[in-house]
Design goal:
Elements (H helix, E strand, L loop, with lengths): L10 E5 L2 E2 L7 E2 L3 E5 L7 H16 L17 H4 L7 E3 L3 E5 L10 E5 L11 H14 L9 E5 L5 H8 L4 E6 L2 H13 L6 E5 L2 H5 L10 E4 L1
Parallel strand pairs: 6-7, 8-9, 8-11, 9-10
Antiparallel strand pairs: 1-4, 2-3, 5-6
């Protein structure tokens, strides 16, 4: 509560040690550490003094360790995370490939993705489950080939692109985040499926209201 008054980015409470119980997720056993980020601006020293004073008075009630301050180098996280994004094989046919890498498995269908600021790198379990369902449950059935697909909450466009590469005819994706639409369009272009996709800002209500060219489809994915 004390830190939250002066830290615009909020605070996080972390345990310094975790007991790993093989039967469940475990539980914290170490002392708690409360962390937050101070912007390095003209008010830095003033903010720091306010924190130290508040914690001093709080420490009169319950002893507290002295606060620790450490400068953090600013990093372009939008680029730094990419070193950890590796190709991911999904099901029997698909492989998600970072757009800046070559596919290591030529016998799989590549889905080239650079999510930018959008959700959808393929690492999340629900994304992988949707991809497996598209492959195994839907597009192995001949009567569902060459159909339209609606992608609700399209994010990076990964599910729309996968559906098209699994022989869907067209994919229409909506997302409430404009950044996602930008990323989805770029990823569609990188996968050479732009002519068969349309991405726009919106969600279920707008689709059902008929505000877009596509109102219904035999296949709808919602991750």
């Amino acid at each position: 509560e004390v830190l939250a008054r002066v830290l615009p980015g909020g605070v996080v409470v972390k345990s310094t040690a975790i007991y790993a119980d093989p039967e469940d997720q475990g539980y914290p056993v170490g002392p708690l550490r409360v962390c937050g980020y101070l912007p390095v601006d003209a008010h830095l020293e003033e903010t720091r003094q306010r924190i130290e004073e508040a914690l001093y008075f709080l420490g009169r009630i319950q002893p507290l360790p002295d606060p620790q301050f450490k400068p953090i180098e600013e990093i372009n996280w939008a680029e730094a995370w990419k070193q950890h994004f590796k190709p991911i094989a999904i099901g029997k046919k698909l492989i998600i490939v970072p757009a800046w890498l070559e596919s290591p498995e030529k016998n799989r269908i590549p889905i080239r993705i650079d999510p930018g600021m959008a959700f959808g790198t393929g690492t999340h379990p629900t994304t992988q489950l949707c991809l497996e369902l598209l492959e195994v449950q839907l597009f192995k059935k001949v009567e569902l080939l060459d159909v339209d697909v609606i992608d609700i909450g399209c994010g990076s466009g990964i599910l729309s692109i996968a559906a098209l590469k699994l022989d869907a005819e067209r994919a229409f994706g909506v997302d409430t985040d404009p950044e996602a639409i930008t990323a989805a369009k770029q990823n569609a272009a990188d996968n050479a499926v732009s002519d068969h996709t349309e991405f726009t800002v919106g969600s279920v209500a707008e689709v059902l209201a008929g505000e877009f060219p596509v109102k219904q489809a035999p296949v709808v994915v919602a991750n």
